[in-house]
Q: What sequence folds into this?
């Protein structure tokens, strides 16, 4: 391998010392214990920043306490001062993921020499190395190259190949250096300095070739993570690396190793010559309970096959930290002890998030102008709607605020599955109303009027930062999905007047509407499932006349259903819907997909198509409450006859449905 793969960096010491940052510090026990010939090294990781520099939710247009590199910066500086030696890396997915990223890429653009706002924030903090995540490719290779050029630290990626793959990884032509070797001075416990060679090698999920096919096909390829590591790590050792740290933008899975696997960090850790692994992509915390009871994983100690590893959450929520105790072994170093953690920027206090650190002003200052420009962007229209987007009647009739989410999900999944084994299956979409009164009160409803739609309106349509997923299920599974959703309704007696319709204990986010099929709900039937997804009335069949393309659905036929990560992973206890039936894990949030759909279409008209309704029951009526703002939209509700029925409790308006 050519020496050009690692820069001739000037030998320099590690960033440390309270005087350098203004933080008082209590030294880590490793630094206190270090003696002559032994040293404490702290490795710090940010991952999945997704352009969150300011602690601000641009979708909701308000500050937030759970995100922001400016907040993480306080942890970085504290941790540097707790140790004699430290290194800071980023593990990818920094370039896309909130409106600031879209604003720079789609609206303002980058000229040669411009520095992207997230890079501005990172440059302030003195990163030592970084790798790419899958979202770095969302805006194309040319844009990504301009962004990387503004960084004052090196980027590495060993499995991103120009053009076609060759016979072996070491023969491939790469977009970036596969690894970087940093020559540094390590200060031991006696204050003496010694040379150390640190090697950082980076990896991106091979699935980028599916997720960003339109940007990469014909220009790039991606190799298997583990096979690539086995090719390059020995070379790094030959170049004299004392330590090899893997920057793995990949999650942790205990599944058997398979070529091209997306979440390969566990198997990567098993590669001989790798000393520590930083993980990402999963938007989770390691060490932590999310990975408990996985073979080869110690979720408390923070090891993968016995090697130290960390994953620092997402959006700057945590800082991944690996502490190494090193001993001088002749002219090299060996690890004699380690500890790992994911240090948070906030804590939970009941339903509240309490910040543990404040933002660093120099990071905010570096991105201040970009932040203000992004605020103007999210407050400006990005499209138009020809139909009002409201959720006042979303629990009793097909609804435009749910319809637009389903349209966007279907559009996205249909595109993403092109060229896969699932491309020929029909795509349905499941979506639920999030803002539908309840404990949120009579004003807790989506209400976007006809006309301009701004990016911040998307938060009104989709509250949660879920990511898109798709499941492959049968027609029978579709019916059972809907049976579980129909549990929101109380059982009704035919011929009786003004019966309560909605079960107030049933969360509206579990009331999935499935678009792409038509069906009716028989309210005389009891709910087939309880809230745990257990069958309590085996003979009940609330879902009737279920049709696909106008014909009775084939219960054995296969369908793709677009949904979100909460539902696809078993959230809500829907029968048969779990990780086992997931066929696509999207890299994008449902919110991002919704924004892209609106921008792509320009003008949307998500009028409800009344694909579901109640089975008629002559002489029967039911009552439900909704927000008083629903009065303005009552005449446009389709598929059901609704009339005012006086005042509800606590400021709600009451309505009657004649079945």
A:
């Amino acid at each position: 391998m050519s020496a050009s793969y690692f820069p001739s960096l000037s030998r320099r010491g590690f960033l440390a010392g309270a005087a350098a940052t203004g933080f008082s510090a209590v030294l880590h026990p490793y630094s206190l214990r270090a003696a002559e010939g032994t040293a404490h090294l702290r490795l710090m990781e940010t991952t999945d920043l997704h352009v969150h520099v300011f602690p601000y939710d641009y979708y909701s247009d308000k500050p937030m306490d759970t995100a922001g590199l400016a907040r993480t910066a306080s942890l970085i500086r504290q941790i540097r001062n707790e140790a004699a030696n430290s290194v800071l890396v980023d593990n990818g997915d920094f370039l896309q993921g909130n409106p600031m990223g879209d604003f720079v890429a789609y609206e303002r653009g980058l000229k040669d020499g411009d520095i992207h706002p997230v890079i501005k924030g990172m440059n302030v903090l003195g990163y030592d190395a970084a790798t790419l995540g899958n979202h770095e490719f969302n805006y194309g290779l040319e844009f990504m190259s301009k962004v990387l050029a503004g960084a004052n630290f090196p980027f590495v990626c060993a499995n991103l190949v120009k053009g076609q793959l060759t016979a072996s990884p070491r023969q491939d032509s790469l977009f970036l250096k596969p690894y970087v070797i940093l020559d540094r001075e390590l200060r031991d416990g006696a204050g003496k300095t010694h040379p150390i060679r640190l090697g950082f090698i980076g990896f991106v999920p091979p699935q980028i070739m599916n997720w960003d096919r339109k940007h990469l096909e014909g220009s790039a390829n991606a190799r298997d993570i583990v096979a690539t590591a086995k090719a390059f790590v020995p070379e790094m050792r030959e170049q004299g690396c004392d330590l090899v740290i893997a920057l793995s933008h990949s999650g942790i899975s205990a599944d058997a190793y398979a070529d091209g696997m997306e979440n390969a960090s566990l198997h990567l850790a098993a590669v001989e010559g790798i000393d520590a692994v930083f993980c990402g992509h999963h938007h989770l915390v390691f060490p932590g309970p999310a990975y408990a009871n996985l073979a080869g994983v110690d979720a408390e100690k923070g090891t993968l096959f016995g090697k130290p590893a960390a994953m620092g959450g997402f959006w700057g929520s945590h800082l991944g930290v690996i502490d190494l105790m090193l001993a001088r072994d002749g002219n090299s170093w060996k690890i004699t002890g380690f500890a790992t953690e994911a240090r948070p920027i906030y804590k939970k206090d009941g339903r509240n998030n309490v910040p543990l650190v404040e933002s660093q002003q120099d990071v905010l200052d570096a991105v201040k102008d970009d932040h203000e420009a992004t605020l103007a962007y999210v407050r400006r229209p990005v499209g138009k709607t020809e139909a009002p987007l409201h959720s006042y009647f979303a629990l009793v009739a097909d609804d435009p605020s749910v319809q637009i989410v389903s349209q966007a999900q279907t559009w996205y999944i249909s595109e993403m599955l092109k060229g896969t084994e699932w491309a020929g299956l029909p795509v349905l979409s499941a979506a639920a109303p999030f803002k539908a009164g309840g404990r949120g009160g009579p004003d807790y409803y989506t209400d976007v009027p006809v006309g301009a739609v701004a990016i911040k309106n998307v938060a009104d349509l989709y509250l949660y930062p879920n990511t898109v997923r798709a499941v492959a299920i049968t027609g029978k599974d579709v019916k059972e999905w809907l049976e579980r959703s129909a549990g929101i309704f109380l059982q009704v007696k035919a011929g009786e007047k003004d019966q309560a319709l909605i079960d107030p204990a049933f969360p509206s986010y579990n009331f999935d509407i499935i678009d792409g099929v038509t069906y009716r709900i028989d309210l005389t039937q009891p709910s087939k499932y309880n809230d745990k997804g257990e069958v309590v009335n085996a003979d009940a069949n609330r879902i009737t006349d279920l049709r696909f393309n106008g014909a009775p659905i084939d219960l054995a036929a296969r369908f793709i259903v677009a949904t979100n990560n909460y539902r696809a992973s078993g959230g809500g206890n829907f029968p048969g819907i779990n990780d086992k039936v997931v066929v696509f894990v999207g890299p994008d949030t449902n919110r991002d997909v919704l924004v892209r759909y609106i921008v792509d279409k320009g003008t949307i008209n998500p009028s409800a198509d009344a694909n579901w309704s109640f089975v008629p029951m002559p002489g029967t009526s039911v009552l439900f409450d909704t927000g008083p703002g629903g009065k303005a939209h009552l005449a446009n509700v389709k598929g059901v006859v609704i009339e005012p029925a006086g005042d509800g409790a606590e400021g709600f308006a009451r309505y009657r449905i004649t079945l």
